[in-house]
């Protein structure tokens, strides 16, 4: 009887209940917010679609309608959110067959991609434009992310107590919830994100002077509410002055990883330094760099083998 009633339930209502049951308290607030956005979009696109009416055709139509205004990757993310609830509905016997099986992901034409990372010469040009004053400013933040590959929220959360200058390491154990007006410390993205990052002696010396009189448990970069657009705007000014491609603060993280890979650092070490949960993530994110390095390795292999006569 209960299953029969659930079949009459609207799909967006079931999804909302599913999120409250399985996601609230189990995932980070920033991730949970994405599920809420999915629920709102679901209610907007199919307000009257009942669970019993959910089949391959109706589900594919839903994805197609979503894809009209979203790029392919965003449509894939939307599908992955819904798929979890759908599979549970199948397990509960509310839906007899999986409507998400063999679906086709579509999407509108992607916007022209901005530069994802800088090369070594562009980084050097950017560094020359930094205004590294005696007190903490956003140029110091940019330098730090270039040299560590920290996520934006991880760098914002740094306090003086996170620096171990004797071992030249930075301890990453939290993030800063900059999207909240009040701001607060939050857990890291995942367990792998908790890590210690080795820094060079010069950066260690610079920051030991910068933070020597700062409160030990207060974020060194936070003075008021922070928006990533603030740092991105500063970066834009610096990039234009340097006559290099305009990038975002997240691209500084990509730049750091790319420089390490081109320098011959192993994928495993780069993955650990970035706080990736697996090397697969690193390989997929930096596939273009890895392929270029493989081409260089192939040239070395052929040159070496040709000498074996």
Please describe the biggest sheet, giving its number of strands, its sense, and whether it closes into a barrel. Answer: 3 strands, antiparallel
What is the CA-CA span between the terminal residues? 80 Å
Structural class: mainly alpha
> What are the low-pLDDT stretches, counting only 5+ consecutive residues below 50?
none
| Proportion of beta-strand residues | under 5%
Quickly count the helices: 14
- CATH hierarchy: architecture of the largest domain: Orthogonal Bundle
CATH class of the largest domain: Mainly Alpha
Largest sheet, spatial ordering of strands:
1-2-5
Number of strands: 5
Label the overall shape: globular
Mean pLDDT: 92
Helical residue percent?
40-55%
Say which CATH homologous superfamily of the largest domain is assigned. Intergrase catalytic core
List keywords for this structure.
single chain; 309 residues; mainly alpha; DNA polymerase, domain 1; hpI Integrase, Chain A; 3-stranded antiparallel sheet; two-stranded antiparallel ribbon; 14 helices; 5 strands; 5% strand; globular
Task: Spell out the blueprint of helices and strands.
Blueprint: H1 2-7, H2 11-22, H3 29-45, H4 56-67, H5 72-91, H6 120-129, H7 138-148, H8 152-156, E1 163-164, E2 169-172, E3 175-176, E4 185-186, E5 195-198, H9 201-210, H10 228-242, H11 249-262, H12 267-274, H13 279-285, H14 287-306
Antiparallel strand pairs: 1-2, 2-5, 3-4
Helix pairs in contact: 2-3, 6-10, 7-11, 12-13
Family: Belongs to the 'phage' integrase family.
Protein name: Site-specific integrase
GO molecular function: DNA binding
